[in-house]
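ok so I'm stuck.
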Amino acid sequence: MEGRIVSVEARQLLGIGWTGPYSAARELPRRWREFVQRAEEIPGRVHPGTFLSPIHGRKTDFTVYIAVEVDPDDEAAPPEGLVRLTLPDQRYAVMTHRGPASRVQETYRALYAWMEKSGLHRDKDALWLEVYDQGYTPAADEHMGEGCAFDVYVPLA
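replied:
not stuck anymore, here's the structure
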């Protein structure tokens, strides 16, 4: 697997958030199903069928957002229970994960190794990101196995 560097312009997201210990990550598929069912009620979606998941990891717990990109000029109040989130301009190291989602840590390890070899450093204060499109939607394709593909973005300092 080979990494690449991309610059992503600021974008507005609308979605749900979840915070918990790493040991409670089994909650996430249920949260994905809930959000995907509600996604159609979100006005001003920019890329239907694409979901973004900004993540902030800490030593003992993490926060995951499950969101869609929305028109930044749409100032309508978010539907009840959803939050608005702004991703700032950011450079990322990116690698495509292929295979079961349960093996995503292998892709993260490969991406970190590529970054180290390339002399790149992670911005530990910025959110990392997973982007899901038609190659994989966690709520619908949980058991897709080897056919699953999505992009992992690690913020660069």
